[in-house]
Structure formats: C-alpha cells, structure tokens
Amino acid sequence: MADVPDIVRDMARSMTTSVPQAAALGFRFVSVSPGRGSLDVPWRADLVGDPDTEVIAGGVVTSLLDHTCGLACAAAAGTEPFSTATLDLRIDYMRPAAPRAGVVAEAHCYKITRTVAFVRAEAWDVDRGDLIATAQAAFVVNRPRPDPAS
C-alpha cells in the first residue's frame, strides 16, 4: 500500500494533541494511509456514561468517529492539504462498548469532489468483527484559494 506524504503523517499524529477535544478525551493516533485513518480512545473512568455499566459514553464514540473521519479526509488530500468541517454525520449504534474497554475507529474517505468529501467509518472494542457502531459522513472541503497577487 502506498504511503502518505510526511506532512500528512505528521498532521495525523498531531491531531490527537493539537485539537483540544481530542486531547481531553485521550484520543491516540493508530495509523494513516492514503484516504484512511485510525484512532483509538482507551477506557477511563471519567469517560463512562453510566457508572453501573462501566461502558464508555456514546458521545465519546461519536467524537471518536467524527475525528477519525476528519483524519481520513486529511489523508485523502495527499500533497494538496485542505481544511474540513463536518457537514453530515450519521451513526448507527449496534451495541454498547464492552465494560472497561477502549474503542478503536477506522475511517475511509472514498470520494472527494471539489467541495465535499465522503467517508465511512467503523468503531469496535475487543473484536473488530463485532462492531459497536458505523458512520457515514460528509465533510466540507475548504481548499486554499490561489493568491490573486501571484
């Protein structure tokens, strides 16, 4: 599989520390390849939604999926980076995460038009074959405009 440019790999690694929400939730960089990205979030007691279940809150999973989709968009940009913003995010939850388990998400940006990027993602805990949730997303593509002075 082809590799991504160094600038994309560096950006992918820094996304988990430079974005305040990602840093606060403890997101960690897993991998990046052309049009694909993966992040995870380890289990922490302060991320639990219901203390009786010890399961990571659904909002953390939503944030992880959204952030991972953004990473996949950036990985699809190649040498022409652009900024993105979530336009639409649909998540289908199939089950809660396992108690005291972290969550991994992987996203694939499968199509980019001039103004929109389309992404699919999956989230799982201990078994990738038993998904917690899937996501379908669209992101606004904000490409740099050429400098009229040049």
Can you count the beta strands?
8
Which series of helices and strands comes N to C?
HHEEEEHEEEE
CATH C-level class is: Alpha Beta
What is the structural class?
Answer: alpha+beta
Anisotropy-based shape: elongated
| N/C terminus separation | 37 Å
Order of strands, main sheet, comes to 1-2-6-7-8-5
- Average pLDDT, rounded to a whole number, is 90
Work out the radius of gyration: 16 Å
Query: What fraction strand?
Result: 35-45%
Give the name of the CATH architecture.
Roll
**The named CATH superfamily:** Hotdog Thioesterase
CATH topology: Thiol Ester Dehydrase, Chain A
Q: How much helix is in the residues?
A: 25-40%
Q: Ranges with pLDDT <50 over ≥5 residues?
A: none
Description:
The chain is of the alpha+beta class. It has one domain (6-142): Thiol Ester Dehydrase, Chain A. It contains three helices and eight strands; from the N terminus they run ααββββαββββ. It has helices at 6-18, 20-25, 58-77; strands at 28-33, 36-41, 48-50, 55-56, 83-93, 103-112, 116-124, 133-142. A six-stranded antiparallel sheet has the order 1-2-6-7-8-5. A hairpin with a 3-residue loop joins β6 (103-112) and β7 (116-124). α1 (6-18) runs antiparallel to α3 (58-77). The longest helix is centred in the middle third of the chain and has 20 residues, at 58-77. The radius of gyration is 16 Å and the shape is elongated. The N and C termini lie far apart (37 Å). 37% of the residues are buried. The model has no long low-confidence stretch (mean pLDDT 90).
